Input
Amino acid sequence: MHPFRKSARRAHSNGLRSVFLIALAAVASACSTPAPKLTDLLNGRLKESYSETQAVEVFYATNRQSLSQAPDCSDRAFGVAFEEVSRYGACQINVPKLRPVGTFEMASNPRADSHRYFRAFAHAPFPSSGELESSLKETLKRRGSTEVLVFIHGFNVKYEESIVRAAQIAYDVKFQGPVIVYSWPAGSDGGLLSGALINRTYEQNRKAAAASVPKLVELFKTLAGLGATPHVIVHSMGHQLALPALAQLADEGTSPFLGELVLNAPDIDLGLFTGLAAKVRKLARRVTVYCSFNDNAIAASETFNGGRRLGACERVADVDMVNVSEVDAPGVSGLGHSYYAGRAILTELFQVLLGIDAEKRLFIRKSEPNSTENFYLRP
Output
């Protein structure tokens, strides 16, 4: 690895402790009583260390077509077609410690090393959204948490991948509360995409996203009634259902209930987002967008849709627009579209969930006034 990249990686890793100390120092200084030790506050915040291989519980809601009478946590359970019925459950996912941050690889056989490979341990279906809600409340109480992490995936992501990715993100940012994924009907019937199938699959996924908006509204209403703070992470085409769903809730007069709303590589029309932004902001404490000039998937979407996409970077009032072009690496995947799950953005997400202002977070620099973004994430 190039020495510069090594030093950058060390800086991101070693900076996490500094982030916590800064945040906790601010909390301690605001208290009228004698300040507790920063180490005590730090250890109190991180009750679950995520330093060993362990099972991570991932709750899910999905309107994918059911493929099995006895669903599990694999693609044998739910397909890529749309259904009007919402289904709920929880998966126990083994998350290994011996892997690079931001990556996942499923075990190829039952004897594969559990410290290197992901594996689904168990599955528990819920008969209704009411049981999902009660299970989330029980988990919040058991963990002593007041926060929920919600993940909404993007284009061409099948059910199993959505579950495992949610577990990976929760583990890598050491999230202390329950995590839930909304797994909408994305993916391709043909498995791996060929160039000839991409446009057809994109159109199918786009229609499925639009049709899924009412189902996601139902889930958001459940989350709003938890008495906890949901933080929502969205990727790619997932914005085409997440943002209209939130706008609908705002139109219905829903009270603010979200903490952080984090939008990664958003594949949504820029003009549409500009029109929805004011409504969405009413429901969230803060809206953060990660965009990139190097995102070839967003560039392809602009060609396909014939217009600007939010993920290509464009300032929007009262939204933190963070350009990640300097840390994005299209050479790794060929697209530069999956940075949301890598070390640089996970370090950012860790700080965002602490509530730290953008200009005070590690590795952030302000952009010039005439730039298409507010901030740059430094390499």
